[in-house]
Amino acid sequence: MPEEDIKVLLVDDDEIDRLAIQRFVQREGLPYRLDVVTSKAAAVEKLRNNVYDIAILDFLLPDGTGMEILAQVGETPAIFVTGSGDERTAVKALRQGAYDYLIKDPERNYLIVLPATISTVLERKHAERALIESELKHRVLLNSIQTPTLALKEDMTVVYCNDAYTALVGKSVGELEGQNLLEVFPKLRSSHTYQAYLKALQTGQTQEVEGALGERFYHSRIFRTPWGILAIAEDVTERRLAQEALIRYNEELEQRVAERTADLETAMSDLERSYSDTIKAITAAMDAKDSYTRGHSEEVKRIALSIGRRFGLDGSGLRRLEYAALLHDIGKIGISDQLLTKSAGLTDLEYAAIKLHPEIGGRLVSQVEMLREVGAIIQAHHEFYDGSGYPLGLSGDQIPLEARIISVADAYEAMTSDRPYRKAFEQGEATRRLLEAEGTQFDPRVIKAFLESTKEMHKQDKC
């Protein structure tokens, strides 16, 4: 606010003090527009009908006290003025909402510090308004996130939570914010989630825990923050059910094979065929989830196998590469369709949720004994050759060869296909971008094999 617009309500019934302040403001050329009243009733009336930047309140008035006016000032910051020796009264006024106080002295030297006091109070009020606006923007952003999010102080007091979290636990924001979470949910104290909270506080390390609420399953990531804890919950019901279905199917297949008396080689062939059929069914289910990526896994498989043959892979190696290529995005099965098909840019939290899919997919597929190596490939398919990828920051030959191959095939197929947020690139442009990332994101040997296989496929197409 410009200084010339500073509107000051002066409430003081002492004519000498009142005139002293008015003359001081005039003599010093201070940019204050003074509105002067001498009673509590007049002050309340002024505050009801006008907007002031600041109010200066005397303690004793003919019809009441400045303390009683404090309840009427609303958003107007107030400076309390009291006589010498009334410091206790001034402190009480601060507790009831006054921004600052001045002690009157016989020589009226307190007037010298009045301008600085007013400036300090106005700056504080401005900072408070900016903080409130920031909090409102933060809450709007927080509520735009579909993932349940909760922030706690170290003593388990809820700092804030978003709408997704309140919907999850069946409580309103008013019932949660400012309350101790252990008092709102007494059973929490004996849960694995609470132990994870404590461990995050004690060690500073991110904790992960899974639990059920009603018929839904949730995976929570718990982070240590400067103020306490940030917990982000992810609905993993579909993933959990898919995992249980895979495990159950695996058990059924193994039992069926064990019961057979036919030749072991034939039995293993049947088992592999069943796995292949299951993987194709899961791939079809993933394709149905997002029309933009329909056929993506099949195309990644085709490109990956072509590169794999350049590296001399055959038999079980190619089969492992095929399964990993088909299932590389299975970790996205628990991510909302809205997030996967979002056309606008992702927030940091949304991007963090997307980045979990290689680890989730790897862990999910590794539950099946026969696909354990495939799970390791899936987990590593977003690692970068220079070590700057995720989730483990592997580099070079630490990354399984099959994962390095899928990384190139996945990137090329994604770039040459339409997405909600952009149109497909031409093949030449996609290839140029792959070459730009050679040695950083991609293994140079895999890029070379990709270029050779692409050239070979073009020759075959011409024939």
General description of the model:
The structure is a single chain. This protein has 20 helices and 12 strands. With 463 residues, the chain is of the alpha/beta class. Strands 2-1-3-6-7 form a 5-stranded parallel beta sheet, with helices on both faces. A 5-stranded antiparallel beta sheet has the order 9-8-12-11-10, with helices on both faces. A hairpin with a 2-residue loop joins strand 10 (207-213) and strand 11 (216-224). Helix 10 (237-259) runs antiparallel to helix 11, helix 13 packs across helix 17 (372-379) and helix 13 (316-327) packs across helix 18 (401-415). The chain starts with 5 loop residues before the first strand and ends with a helix. Mean pLDDT is 80; it is low at 261-265.
Query: Please, how many helices?
Result: 20
Structural class: alpha/beta
Form type: elongated
Number of domains: 3
- Distance from first to last alpha carbon: 76 Å
C-alpha Rg (nearest Å): 34 Å
- Per CATH, the class of the largest domain reads Mainly Alpha
Q: Indicate the CATH topology of the largest domain.
A: Hypothetical protein af1432
What does this entry show, briefly?
By secondary structure, the chain is of the alpha/beta class.
